[in-house]
Structure formats: C-alpha cells, structure tokens
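User: Before I run my own analysis I want an independent prediction to cross-check against. Here's the chain; please return only the structure tokens and, at the end, one sentence I can use as a sanity check.
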Amino acid sequence: MDASSVQLNGRTRRPSYGGTTANDLCLELDMDSFDLTRRSFLSDMGLGFGSVALTGMLQHEAQAAASASVARIAPKAKSVIWLFMIGGTSHMESFDPKPALTKYAGKTIEETPHKDVLASPYLENERVVAFDPNNGFIRTELYPLQVSYRRWGQSGLEISDWWPHLGQQADDLCLIRSMWTEDSNHGAQLQFHTGRHRVDGFFPTIGSWVNYGLGSINENLPQFVVMGQPIADCCGGQEAHRANYLGPQYDGVPLAIDPANPLPYAKPAKGVYREEQDGEFELLHKLNGLTAEQYPDDEAIRARIRSYELAFRMQMAVPEVVRFDDETAATQKSYGLDQTVTRSFGQQMLAARRLVERGVRFVQVYHGSSGGAGQWDAHKGLKASHSKLCKQVDQPIAALLADLKQRGLLDETLVVWASEFGRTPGSQHSDGRDHHPFGFTVWMAGGGIKGGIAHGNTDELGFHAVENRHYVTDVHATVLHQLGLDPRELVVPGRKRLEKELGQPIHEVIA
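Assistant: Structure tokens:
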C-alpha cells in the first residue's frame, strides 16, 4: 500500500485524484501526432479555470465512499460556519467578564488573594509564555475591565456590552470558557485550525477533514469555502484552510463577494463568448470520453472528467450565491449591509447563510487580518481597537444566527466563533493586554449544541482554565461528532496522528 492509499475502517481506498496535485490536473491524450494536455487545452481554448479554482473540485464517488465508511455516528448537523477572529480577542472583554480585575486593578497578581495562579501545575506542562518577557511576569499589574457587561436572555449569560446584538441571541449560544492552547505567539492561529504546534510542520485543517470525510450535498458548489482575508504568512498563512497531505482537492476554495468574479479564474477568458465556451466544453467532454473508453477502469480519469464538469457548472452557480438581489431589504438591513462599518462582514455572513442553504459543508470566515499578527492583537489601545472591531462583526453575526433560526436552518448548521487565544489579566503598555493561551473562550450555536449555557470556567482573574479544560482539538472533535464523523476513523497510512490532534467531543454541550 503506497502513501496515496487511504485506510478507512479497515478498508483501503485510493483517493480519486490519483496522487496528483491541483496544478497537475491533466490527462495526456494520445492523438497520433498530438501530445495535448488538459491544462493546455483549457488554457488555449479559454475555459478559464486555473489551479486555484480546481483546488476545491469534489471527487464525489470517493467522498461518498468515505462518508459511508466513516460516518457511523448519527449526524445532528449538515454544515458548519466557522468564524475566526485574527489576533486574539480578549475573553474578559467579550464572553468571560472578570470583575475581580477591576477590583484589584493596579495590583500585581502577588498582591491579590489569587497569587496561587502563578504556581499552577498547568504551567509546568505547557510550552507557553504568559506575559511578554520584556514586561515581566510576576510584576505585571492587573488591568481593569474596559467595558461593562450584563446578563442576557432567559439564560442570563454574562456578555460584555461590546456585543449587544449577539447578547440578544444569548439563549442560542454555548460559551466554552475553558479553552487552552500551546503556542503563546500567533502561530496559535494555525494551531487552532490543525491542532498542531507550528514547529511540528503543516497538517490538514478542520475544514479539510470535514471536506474529506463527507460526500457532496450540492455538486454545483465547492464543499469548503473560505471568505475574508486569510491569516498572514507569519502565522501560518493559507495553511489555515489547506488540506496538506490529504490532497489539494480538499483545500478551502477562496470566495469573494463579487458576482462578476467570485472565484479566481472562474469565468471564461476575456473575449470568449458563452456560446463559444459551450462548444469548447462539448469538445472537451468528447475528448475525455475517448480517453475514458481507452482506460475504462481508471478512477482518476472519471474523477477528472467530473472536475471539469463541475468547473463548468460552478461558473453559473457560484456568482448567484453572492448576488443578493433576491434578498429583501429588511434582510439586507438586518445584516448591516446599509452601514459602512458592518457592510463587508455583513455581506460575508449573508453569503455564508446562502452557501449552507445550498448545501456547502464548511464555510470558514476570517476577520481582522492585518498582514501581520491581526487586528484583534491588542497589546495597546485595547478599548479603542476592540470596540471598533466588535461593531464590525456583532450585528452581522447576530443576524446570521437569527436568520438561520427563522429559516429552520440553525438546527442543522453549527456556527463556531473563535480566536487563537485570549488576553492577559495584566496590563501591557498601560492600556493593552498581552497574548494569553492558558484560558480563553470560544462559542458554538446550533447544530445540535445546547443553547444558553456556559461550559467550563477560568479562575477569578481569567488566568487559567480551571474547570473542564479543553485543548483546541476538542472543538474539532465536537464539530466532527455533530456531522457524524469520528476523527479516529479518519486515518491515512504512513501518517501518524497524535492523540491531541484527535481531541474528544465535548459531550456536556451536546443536546
């Protein structure tokens, strides 16, 4: 068995892409004196699809086989919308308020009744740094809360006043306040998506595992879509939505909110008329058919034929998703499309709803990319930066949840909100907070997850996750479980998966 074969529940399966990469998706045609490749045909004839778009083409038969053999758990969700705030959102100023910070503001941790957090056993086993070494560890003074908070909904969940729209959806939220991660720098952005520290290398992301493990719902659309500017190269770059050794057809496909050009290369070349392209595609179909007759048992050929057919169909289906003409004015306003501050992210949230409505499995949305560590990285000016960023995303996210619920889609759509880590209880540069991987918050909603609850806790200073601690891949395992997948059944021969990569479903939050 070679490295391109895949073991699923004791069965061997060869990925239908035949070990090639998206850039090599071509078949040589023996046409007497011609040595014509599919790539040169597409380029010369102006079909217009390059490697970026082909990266996400589905191999339907292979994924259907994977789904049948892996999905033993009864699924409670069909799709996932994954929202990632780049830079490290402060958990204390969002979903885990800590009034003790204000009570003891200006004191060092050693000067409070909570100085025992510095002797925590968790520090001995985690390769992380709590504070900026230049600022000092024990001497860092506690920084008061920069925003008030209140109890929201019938559940009474405590959420900061920077999230007033989302607070109104509190009874659908499941706050997980006991997350931790290993990387104290922004490599944690990649780690949150793969479960592995960046020093370990690159690995498949959660979206890619979902794409790999499940079959297609809609053969006209990619099953893993990415919106927003990705994290910067310093922190993992596009590897945060790539499939690595699973193969590039399981990568996330970038989508822009532009009906004229939503996918890279996803339209005919300049000067190519639709009628001309129809004829070119018909010829390509015939040539593919001749090759398939010559090699009737070659699954790779059949898969590639389907890829080109999907490429053609996507030229019609994808632009329609980001064309909002059929949405009511009230719906568009609810997402904030009528306001400059919320328009960009609101468009992405509305597109996310339309994508899952049409059967896309995994929609990953980035917010706050800055070309560096990320806009949520509040080493200074936390109040000014966080209040501004929250205004950009609060209303659109709340509208997404309400819209999904109103349409009966929230029960089958799992929404995840996350950031790579939290912020320190101590101050930095007098008005900011440093990176903090020991305890932070993510939340989930819908998809068979309990609403109106807070699971896990940090201590009174928000320093350590002290109850029901969860490494980041417990979130992955929970997502996969709700989709009917067991990560332990997703095995590739020759690829050793560590236990921490697999995680454990958080059963306490599952309805």
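Sanity check: The first helix runs from residue 38 to 45.
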